[in-house]
Specification:
Elements: H1 3-11, E1 16-19, E2 25-28, E3 33-34, E4 37-38, E5 48-49, H2 50-69, H3 76-92, H4 101-106, E6 120-121, E7 132-133, E8 136-137, H5 139-145, H6 155-166, H7 171-183, E9 186-188, H8 189-199, H9 204-209, E10 211-213, E11 225-226, E12 234-236, E13 242-244, E14 257-258, E15 267-270, H10 272-293, E16 298-301, H11 303-306, E17 310-313, E18 319-324, H12 330-336, E19 351-356, H13 364-374, E20 384-386, H14 387-400
Helix pairs in contact: 2-3, 2-5, 6-7, 7-10, 12-13
Length: 402
């Protein structure tokens, strides 16, 4: 545990210190207060909960954002969470305890949770995960952090709620806005200004506020590159290799594309949570929509201001509702899904499905089973599947009703 951590706890009144005759501090760990309870050092164990994990994940994500803008101190969430881990190390007698945030980021954050060697009060399904991959917060880290991107709450939810309000009398505006974010993860400032005025005047400021200037550090030889699969901006790894933020895109083996621009224009990209929670799942949402329409099926995208993702109507007037989910951790997703897919008033569905992109099909049936196991909404096995399997299910139904 670092000296700075102990002094910070002393200043906050969390731990008692005494001075030796030579002026050195000595700390009494039995006096350390966390919340409203004192630590029992005789137990030699401090359990780290999922709340602490979320606190650390939030701090890591906020810290990454700060790096692009200006150097600053570590976020409070990250510092406090690591302090708890450092104490747990001391109590557990770990041979190489954490020595502050930099040490945590360089070591523990880059290994699976099961290798932390302290008492973890986590679901077993989380223990294989890690918080940092390729020097960036992992998908698991982002999903665990939840509402971290904006000081006043989840920015993505703010954007969606504002657009919903503006589009209350014109639902197609919401669908167009959301499609625009999905199809334009990277854009020049000039194009953004023009499109905002021509096509999105009622939500002009919301659209502009959804983007920020792309980081210069992402350039390779002075040029920005976009992923050949999802279209997102690629970054340079520590080996100066182009990488997509979505690690699953690499498996698609599609070459990157130089982003066309001129030196007089700026390049913008979606803000972090919009990239992860709108653009990332949005690509398979649009892809699935097109695949189903090619089967001459009636498909509505984001019906009634996004009650769910896809509304399917068959020729026999049977209606299916689909929610597409693109999460790394099935356990985290299951905790978020606490209600059945809502029904539309004018055309309620007969069946509903949770569909996962083919990009994560390699996670296998265990992923689907984990989602069903921890989801509080009762789901039958046939209601949870991967994208290609769902398309086959649709085709089977169409064949039966020819």
């Amino acid at each position: 545990m670092s000296v700075d951590t102990l002094r910070r706890w002393e200043a906050a009144g969390k731990i008692k210190a005494m001075r030796t005759p030579t002026g050195h501090r000595r700390y009494d760990l039995t006096s350390l207060v966390t919340g409203n309870e004192e630590v029992n050092t005789s137990a030699r164990v401090i359990s780290i909960t999922e709340d602490t994990l979320q606190q650390i994940a939030k701090g890591l994500c906020k810290y990454e954002q700060q790096i692009f803008k200006s150097p600053s101190d570590y976020p409070n969430e990250l510092q406090l969470g690591v302090d708890k881990l450092a104490l747990a190390c001391v109590m557990a007698g770990v041979s190489q305890p954490i020595q502050g945030v930099p040490d945590f980021i360089s070591r523990w954050a880059q290994i699976p949770l099961k290798e932390w060697n302290i008492q973890l009060d986590f679901a077993e399904e989380l223990l294989e995960e890690q918080l940092i991959e390729e020097q960036k917060p992992s998908g698991f880290c982002i999903e665990t952090a939840e509402e971290y991107f904006d000081e006043s709450g989840n920015f993505q939810k703010q954007v969606i709620n504002e657009v919903m309000t503006k589009a209350a009398q014109k639902p197609e505006l919401y669908t167009s806005f959301r499609r625009y974010l999905i199809e334009h993860p990277v854009i020049t400032k000039g194009d953004l200004d023009v499109d905002s005025i021509l096509h999105f005047k009622p939500v002009l400021e919301i659209l502009k506020n959804s983007y920020e200037k792309a980081p210069e550090s992402y350039k390779l030889d002075g040029i920005f590159y976009c992923c050949g699969h999802c279209g997102g901006l690629m970054y340079l790894s520590k080996n100066d290799e182009l990488k997509c933020e979505n690690k699953h895109c690499e498996k698609q083996n599609k070459p990157e594309k130089a982003f066309p621009t001129d030196e007089d224009d700026e390049v913008f990209w979606l803000k972090p949570d919009l990239r992860y929670f709108i653009h990332r799942p949005g690509k398979p949402e649009l892809r699935l929509t097109e695949r189903l329409r090619q089967l001459n099926l009636e498909v509505q995208l984001y019906p009634e201001l996004d009650k769910y993702d896809l509304h399917l109507v068959f020729s026999d007037n049977i209606v299916w509702a689909v929610d597409v989910k693109f999460w790394e951790c099935a356990y985290n997703l299951a905790k978020k899904v606490d209600k059945p897919i809502p029904r539309l008033k004018h055309q309620p569905y007969q069946d509903s499905f949770f569909v996962f992109p083919d990009e994560i099909q390699s996670y296998g049936q265990e992923y689907l089973q984990e989602f069903r196991t921890y989801c509080t909404v009762p789901l039958k096995k046939y209601q949870v599947m991967f994208e290609s399997e769902f398309v086959k299910k649709v085709m089977t139904k169409l064949e039966k009703h020819k």
